[in-house]
Specification:
Order of helices and strands of chain A: HHHHHHHHHHHHHHHHEHHEH
CATH topology of chain B: Four Helix Bundle (Hemerythrin (Met), subunit A)
Number of domains of chain B: 1
CATH architecture of chain B: Up-down Bundle
Number of helices of chain B: 6
Mean pLDDT of chain B: 92
Strand content of chain A: under 5%
Mean pLDDT of chain A: 94
Helix content of chain A: 55-70%
CATH topology of chain A: Cytochrome C Oxidase, Chain A
Shape of chain B: elongated
Helix content of chain B: over 70%
Structural class of chain A: mainly alpha
Number of strands of chain A: 2
Oligomer: heterodimer
Largest sheet of chain A: 2 strands, antiparallel
CATH superfamily of chain A: Cytochrome c oxidase-like, subunit I domain
CATH superfamily of chain B: Cytochrome c oxidase, subunit III, four-helix bundle
Number of domains of chain A: 1
Radius of gyration of chain A: 24 Å
Low-confidence stretches of chain B: 1-8
Distance between the termini of chain A: 20 Å
CATH class of chain A: Mainly Alpha
Radius of gyration of chain B: 19 Å
CATH class of chain B: Mainly Alpha
Strand order of the largest sheet of chain A: 1-2
Largest interface: A-B, 47 and 43 residues
């Protein structure tokens, strides 16, 4: 090590499992999120298939009613908090620093901490299956059903503690990505030159920062009620059940935009790349995203029309909800105009993106139908609602995630996913999805209630439920095809080029696949929107560097985030089973790790120019 | 530019913003405070919704002793001022003065905590316990969350003082002082709202 870098402290580098436990590299953390997210996605999917098997025919008895309640609760909670969000965080971590030309996120240590708290929170929640006390009050966990009287076991405790711990991780991620996008952009990348996916994540992160604390307070209040005899929601002692609904949905509605905005960002990138055209109406796209996020905070009570808030509140929330259709419509038309006249390439990523557009429009249309408060009295708690939110979450978000995974897979792993299997995934999943959920609109309109574990024959529900279940099997086959694709691709040589689609537009396609540890050997100079496409159109083969080649400073790996999360995990069990000593010990582990982090300076280490090329493909 | 190229004596005027890492931390902490605003906002909302539901327990107007609360308020407000003096001393690169002001800050913080613990103990002895009513649960949760923040702040600033003693005032320790001061001001602002919404409204609007 050169004398000039006498301060470049030698840092212990780990390998194997320890490397993954201690990593602060956003690319590796992205892969960890992907693995954990897919794992929980498979669990949630399995729960969904069991639910659909139970509803295959009238008066079926595959599972009992209480097990069914546990299945629907865990399916919803797992899919939203432990599958969809981590898969989004996987793409955020893998892509955002690359798209803005940064060497890492603003807080690499917090990034690792965010992953591990999410993971241990999710683990705690799912261990409830083994403890024999599974949350069964629905993913919304309404009181008084979720209160001590009607849910006296530990099931709901797993829900409140698991989600609190996982929520810490999500909040840290939101803060981290906001700070990263504000402070770490490459020279020349102004806000209005940022790729659309980066914009979407920026706004999503703001939503996370301002929505998740409300959930935390709600969960804390419910926990205090259940564990320490508080009276927030205990009507007999002056509590208020509607308060839970308000707090939950003040978080819960922004949450659905936290889920869908990143998908909008992915679709914008994929549609533009594979139409080989600049995204139509970039500025209006940015504006629409901001407006959707803003309105997303004003509409929570549309989940509570039948609670009885009165005509004025219902009317205002109806109108505010319908307003969201306007910026969403702007986005839909922008995607259509981007496709219009483009030389479109149909591969798996673009098929998922193009399939997304009409599917999401259908979910949006039923959303406007539900926004009408008088009509909602008919739809409320029927399969019509189930169909609606699966159209926006599966038809919107999950198609978006599949599109993004196929699109960025070569950047994450250096291997392009198998195209034939990808198409199998798309067609089985897409057809299966519509088969499962389209028909549920009609089931709902005919009066089939959601969350019922069975139904009597001869009401006109039988055939539709049968078809819906077959569709769910098809979606399962599509997911299995995707998993097989991952393993087949894994066995292939790592040979993807920097720009494997050859039509890449943004900075992530200017560096090797997968990128070296430090991402950019020289920070690029950004000269316009679609920075890489602009250079290519001017005949350049590389970005103009904004700095000379030099020593690159990197943060050190650390095991502390892992132990901090284990501390919270232990504390969760301590609180749940009334062992306050265990809870205190768990919290002490976390606090001691925090103190160590504060006391011991992280000097990081340097990668010298002569070592930089060795690290590529490392 | 890496954090440790600076040595004491060559500090810039605002040592807390000298490195990108430090600027990231300050921005990140502002965002965190944004999240804290929502956290306390939700707690305030719950308190406002439930504060009249006193059940068999005492009402707010009977319970609260404004002179003592006012004293606590003054102590906390003064501690915010002393933490400003600490940051100003830091900008003058006067380590000794900065540490003295920080120590005064945590002493005031401890004084506030002492009064709050006495207050809670006193209320409990008057039959206003955590599980008495919806009012009491939401009161203790809101004010207790704030008290826990003060306690955490005291521990945190003590830790920072220790680091300044050990490592000196550098571009690594300066952001820690600055951010802990931001945190301290935030707690103070929350208390102003608690004083108004919980205590004054409890006394006046009954």
């Amino acid at each position: 090590m050169a004398a000039a870098h006498a301060h470049g402290h030698k840092v212990k580098r780990y390998s194997g499992l320890m490397d993954w436990l201690t990593t602060v590299d956003h690319k590796k953390i992205g892969i960890l999120y992907l693995i954990a997210g897919l794992f929980f996605f498979l669990i949630g999917g399995l729960e969904a298939v069991i639910i659909r098997i139970q509803l295959l025919k009238p008066m079926n008895d595959v599972v009992a009613g209480d097990t069914f309640n546990e299945l629907i609760t865990m399916h919803g909670t797992t899919m939203i908090f432990l599958a969809a969000m981590p898969l989004l965080f996987a793409l955020m971590n893998a892509v955002i620093p690359l798209q803005i030309g940064a060497r890492d996120v603003a807080f690499p240590f917090l990034n690792s901490l965010g992953f591990w708290t999410f993971f241990f929170g999710g683990l705690l929640l799912n261990l409830s299956w083994f403890a024999g006390a599974v949350p069964d009050a629905g993913w919304t966990s309404y009181v008084p059903l979720a209160g001590e009287y009607y849910s006296s076991g530990h099931g709901v405790d797993y829900y409140v503690l698991g989600l609190q711990i996982a929520g810490i991780g999500t909040l840290l991620g939101g803060i981290n990505f906001m700070a990263t996008i504000i402070n770490m952009r490459a020279p020349g990348m102004t806000f209005m030159r940022m790729p659309m996916f980066t914009w979407a994540i920026f706004i999503t992160s703001a939503l996370i920062v301002f929505a998740f604390p409300a959930l935390t307070v709600g969960l804390v209040a419910l926990m205090f009620d259940r564990l320490f005899n508080a009276n927030f929601f205990d009507v007999a002692n002056g509590g208020n059940g509607v308060l839970w609904e308000h707090i939950f949905w003040v978080f819960g509605h922004p949450e659905v935009y936290i889920l869908i905005l990143p998908a909008f960002g992915i679709i914008s990138e994929v549609v533009s790349t594979f139409s080989r055209k600049r995204l139509f109406g970039y500025s209006s796209m940015v504006f629409a995203t901001v407006l959707i996020a803003f309105l997303g905070f004003m509409v929570w009570a549309h989940h509570m029309f039948t609670t009885g808030l009165g005509p004025v509140a219902n009317g205002l929330f109806s109108i505010a909800t319908m307003l969201i259709a306007v910026p969403t419509g702007v986005k839909i038309f922008n995607w259509l105009f981007t496709l219009w006249g483009g030389s479109i390439r149909f591969n798996t990523a673009s098929l998922f993106a193009i399939g997304f557009i009409p599917t999401f429009v259908m979910g949006g249309v039923t959303g406007v139908m539900l926004a009408s408060a008088p009509a909602d009295y008919q739809y409320h708690d029927t399969y019509f609602v189930v169909a609606h939110f699966h159209y926006v979450i599966v038809g919107g978000l999950v198609l978006g995630i599949f599109s993004g995974l196929h699109y960025w897979w070569p950047k994450m792993f250096g291997r392009v996913l198998n195209e034939k299997l990808g198409q199998v995934t798309f067609w089985t999943f897409f057809i299966g999805f519509h088969m499962t959920f389209f028909i549920q609109h009609f089931l709902g309109l005919l009066g089939m209630q959601r969350r019922v574990y069975t139904y009597l024959g001869g009401q006109g529900f039988d055939n539709m439920n049968f078809i819906s279940t077959i569709g769910a099997f098809l979606m399962g086959i599509g997911t299995i095809a995707f998993v097989i694709n991952i393993f087949i691709t894994w066995a292939k040589p790592r040979n993807a080029s920097n720009d494997p689609w050859e039509d890449g537009r943004s900075l992530e396609w200017t560096i090797p696949s997968p990128p070296p540890e430090y991402n950019f050997k020289q920070t690029p100079l950004v000269r316009g929107y679609d920075a890489w496409w602009k250079e290519k159109m001017e005949g350049k083969t590389a970005m103009t560097p904004a700095e000379p080649v030099g020593s690159i400073h990197m943060p050190s790996p650390s095991i502390l985030p892992f132990f901090m999360s284990i501390g919270l995990f232990i504390a969760g069990f301590g609180f749940m089973y009334d062992h306050l000593i265990v809870a205190g010990a768990g919290l002490a582990i976390t606090l001691v790790c925090m103190a160590i982090r504060s006391l011991v300076d992280d000097h990081g280490f340097h990668i010298e120019p002569e070592d930089q090329d060795k690290e590529v493909q490392a | 530019m890496s954090a440790h190229n600076h040595v004491e004596g060559h500090l810039p005027h605002e040592p807390e913003k000298a490195t990108l890492e430090a600027r990231n931390k300050i921005l990140g902490f502002w965002l965190f405070l944004g999240a804290e605003v929502v956290l306390f906002g939700t707690l305030f909302a719950a308190f406002l919704a439930l504060r009249h539901n006193i059940g068999d327990g005492p009402a707010a107007a009977e319970l609260f002793q404004l002179p003592m609360i006012f004293a606590a308020t003054m102590i906390l407000l003064t501690s915010s001022l002393t933490s400003v003096f600490a940051v100003q001393a830091m900008h003058r690169h006067n380590k000794k003065s900065m540490v003295v002001w920080l120590i005064i800050t945590i002493l005031l913080g401890l004084g506030f905590l002492g009064l709050e613990i006495y207050e809670f103990w006193h209320y409990a002895s008057e039959g206003h316990r955590f599980s008495t009513s919806a009012f009491s649960s939401s009161f203790y949760t809101l004010v207790g969350f704030h008290g826990a923040h003060v306690a955490f702040g005291v521990l945190w600033i003590s830790l920072v003082i220790g680091q300044v003693f050990k490592k000196g005032l550098t571009v690594v320790t300066a952001p820690k002082v600055y951010i802990s001061a931001m945190y301290w001001h935030f707690i103070d602002v929350v208390w102003v709202f608690i004083f108004t919404v919980v205590y004054l409204m409890g006394k006046v609007a009954g």
